[in-house]
Amino acid sequence: MRDVRIVIKPSAEEEDITAFAARQGWHFVEELGPTEQQPYQKIWTVPDHQTSVYYIEDFILNIRYFVVAGDQPQPVIDQIQSGLEVYSRADVLELVETSRELNRRVLAIHRVAGIAPHEFDQEIFDCLQRAMRDPEVDMRRAAIFATTYAHWPEFQASLERLQASDDDPSVRELAEHVLASQLRHDWGRDQR
Predict the structure, then answer these.
(1) Radius of gyration of the chain from its Cα atoms, rounded to whole angstroms
(2) Element (H, E) at 56
(3) Phi and psi torsions of 175, nearest 5°
(4) Considering only CA atoms, which of 166, 121, 177 is closest in space to residue 5?
(5) CA distance 54 to 153
(6) For residues 15-35, b (16+ Cβ closer than 10 Å) or e, as one string?
(7) Which of 104, 116, 148, 173 lies deepest, with the highest CB count within 10 Å?
(8) Are 17 and 84 in contact (CB under 8 A)?
(9) Using one digit for the tens of pLDDT, what is the confidence trace for 121-154?
(10) DSSP H helical segments within 25-73, as ranges?
(11) What is the mean pLDDT of residues 84-99?
């Protein structure tokens, strides 16, 4: 089974998403949360009953996204991308390059986390590596946290460097915590 995240633009309202799901013939399964441990979610299955769609309001990243899960997710991904206001990969990477205010730059890194695939992706890796070297503490922290969505062991050396030598104690502590968690969970392999 393969799952793909699609980050939703702020202009798409939850009501638009629910109406879109109904027009596509998706079967509503359940609504969950939010709780302290779990974000708000709506879950559907598509008519083929082979694919599930999760709408998630991620309170940690402060973004909304779909997770499309199934053996053949592409037709559903295509429906979402053509029928709703969502970010393309190019949109997200452009936001990283063009955002100037710190809060927008951090949100851009959160969106990178949202689009990060399970498989290693050099361009996204390089983007997060640059953010880990940013002079702003909040950017380094956002990039460290983004690795919990990417789950790529290629981040280990960077996390070790930040843990050992970053100027900010909160960055060192977060890098230590994230690295320990990633190693404990075998870089997300035990969650797939």
Answers:
(1) 17
(2) strand 51-58
(3) -60, -40
(4) 121
(5) 26
(6) eebeeebeeeebeeeeeeeee
(7) 116
(8) yes
(9) 999 999 999 999 999 999 999 999 999 999 899 9
(10) none
(11) 96
